[in-house]
Specification:
The chain is mainly beta and 554 residues long. It is built from 7 helices and 24 strands. Residues 1-21 form the signal peptide.
Length: 554
């Protein structure tokens, strides 16, 4: 990966000569993501057709918002559009007078309603904001108080509108619900985090640091070098790449021309690590992912995906840097046995009210074994089917989403544990790993510009390992330890069934400052192991600013 960094440095040195105007990206958990989904469904053939590759570019988002007429929108949508423009004002070409505060703090801070400190002069833009989230909860499964204490800062900027950058840092102390602590005990990882320390015996202390630089090498090709997360998909989950795991170092090339968008993502990851004590250099593994999207018609988008995860003791596999080739063929030519996957995804926006979407990922597949019907272990694949319905039942700003996800046993796992589909002991795709099916239902309602409501119901069935026997649910385990070759189906092993139901109500007191109230009921039943059977209810109340909500949705 050092070679990639040197190549990137060389590119950066020449970038100012050729760079076109460049933008930073929208953050994880962007508060107007639902607005973006609504506008994509309503307008269909638009720049938003490629927003399934997240994070999405601020400049493209603002260009689209400025092109729409707000007269035909609901009061809530019209408000959200103006609010989204204010929070991305470096690219706004119209008047910015409405963004200004009436009474800035000490005539210096909060000159703009959305920014603590703002510099907007010729050839330089800088926005700096505080970040915090304070949350207290009561979990019926534990006598201890569940809490989250996060505080930090974020910044973004532009230099001559050619070089973009962003930065995010929080210091976090967290005691999650008991089922998350059990997950940490099993996987030796805090979901979404990297290195962590024990705090007050049953809580965790960790940093979340992210940052990126951006530039365009041509009008159509964008480059991002950063340490952050990425997400590929239109659904609540992704069977390609989700933002569940820890941050990672990456180089991303994105080419958008005509009706095509082609993304190349090169990642430096951390293989399975029993315990990170913080006093030794961790091993590395690498991933290369390609995604090609084609806007086939006004309403139909078709995508192709491929990835390979690999590890080398002495060098990086340079052939995987080629951005326009079938990775599986490179794997075969190298004589290696790396973890290669391919996928197909489809999205259809119909009737200006409905979106249907899907992802299909093949880890390994033999049609002859499928026809044989004997449940061969090596037919490893994951599937997602989902739909969104906006302004449901004629009620403005009431949106519904339904989704089914599944993965056969041993999907994402590998013969060599260093090449499995994980990072820092956490799945790169679906949080449940494999050998499961899941049903997700979400209701989102915004009755007023300042009020938001979300109700979510998640049901799953998964086959767990039993008595140390590998039944293919944990991608960290090598598939060579499987107990048999045939007779495999989803749910094989120790059967577990669960439900996670939640309700969240949020009120925006001031710009980007939210009061959050939520309730969650989670049940998991493992008939042959009462120790794993849980039934908990949690109520929480919190205050959050310029930060995504921390959710326990698995």
């Amino acid at each position: 990966m050092q070679v990639i960094k040197r190549l990137l440095l060389t590119t950066l040195l020449f970038a100012p000569v050729v760079a076109i105007s460049q933008s930073s990206m929208l953050p994880q958990g962007y508060k107007h993501q639902q607005l973006m989904d609504r506008l994509e469904i309503r307008f269909r053939d638009s720049a938003l057709s490629f927003q399934h590759l997240k994070p999405y570019e601020r400049k493209a988002w603002v260009n689209f918002l400025e092109s729409v007429q707000t007269d035909s929108f609901s009061r809530v949508d019209a408000y959200n559009i103006q609010d989204a423009l204010m929070n991305n004002q470096e690219w706004v070409t119209g008047s910015k007078e409405s963004f200004k505060s009436r009474k800035p703090w000490f005539r210096t801070f909060y000159k703009s309603k959305s920014d603590f400190a703002l510099v907007d002069v010729k050839d330089f833009f800088l926005s700096v904001n505080p970040v915090f989230q304070f949350n207290l909860a009561k979990d019926s499964d534990s006598d201890e108080t569940v809490f989250l204490n996060s505080k930090g800062a974020r910044a973004r900027g532009l230099i001559a509108k050619k070089i973009g950058f962003d930065f995010y840092l929080t210091d976090n102390q967290e005691r999650p619900p008991m089922f998350v602590r059990n997950w940490e005990d099993s996987f030796r990882a805090v979901p979404g985090a990297g290195f962590y320390k024990s705090f007050k015996k049953t809580a965790y202390d960790y940093f979340d640091a992210r940052g990126s630089m951006y530039f365009n090498v041509t009008k159509y090709i964008n480059v991002q070098f950063g340490y952050d997360k990425n997400f590929i998909g239109n659904g609540y989950r992704s069977v390609y790449l989700s933002d569940f795991a820890n941050n990672y170092l990456f180089l991303k090339l994105n080419t958008r021309i005509w009706k095509l968008n082609y993304q190349n993502l090169f990642m430096e990851l951390v293989p399975e690590e029993p315990v990170n004590s913080g006093n030794k250099l961790l091993d590395k593994k690498y991933a290369a992912m390609h995604h090609l999207s084609w806007q086939a018609t006004k309403w139909l988008n078709i995508g192709l995906f491929e990835s390979v995860i690999f590890g080398r003791e002495n060098h990086f596999e340079f052939s995987y840097l080629i951005p326009v080739i079938f990775l599986r063929s490179i794997e075969q030519q190298n004589g290696s046995f790396d973890n290669a996957n391919v996928g197909l995804d489809i999205k259809a926006n119909i009737l200006k009210r409905v979106q249907l979407y899907s992802q299909l990922l093949f880890d390994e597949f033999k049609l002859s074994e499928v026809k044989g019907g004997e449940g061969w272990w090596g037919n490893k694949y994951a599937l997602q089917l989902g739909g969104k319905y906006i302004d449901a039942l004629g009620i403005k700003n009431l949106d519904l989403q339904g989704e089914v996800n599944l993965a056969r046993p041993f999907t994402y796992s590998h013969k060599d544990s260093i090449a499995n589909y994980t990072h820092y002991n956490q799945p790169l795709a679906h949080p449940r790993g494999a050998n499961f099916y899941e049903i997700v239902g979400i209701l989102r309602y915004q009755p007023h510009p300042k009020w938001q409501v979300q109700s979510k119901l998640i049901f799953w069935n998964q086959g767990l390992d039993s008595a140390g026997v590998n039944f293919g649910s944990n991608p960290l385990r090598s598939y060579t330890t499987r107990p048999m070759d045939y007779g495999w189906s989803i749910g094989e092993g120790r059967s577990s069934t669960g439900i996670n139901a939640s309700l969240w109500v949020g009120f925006e007191v001031l710009e980007n400052l939210f009061i959050d109230g939520s309730m969650m009921i989670r049940k998991m039943d493992v008939p042959d192991d009462p120790k794993l059977t849980t039934n908990s209810t949690m109520f929480s109340l919190g205050l959050r600013m310029n930060m995504f909500r921390r959710e326990y949705d698995y």
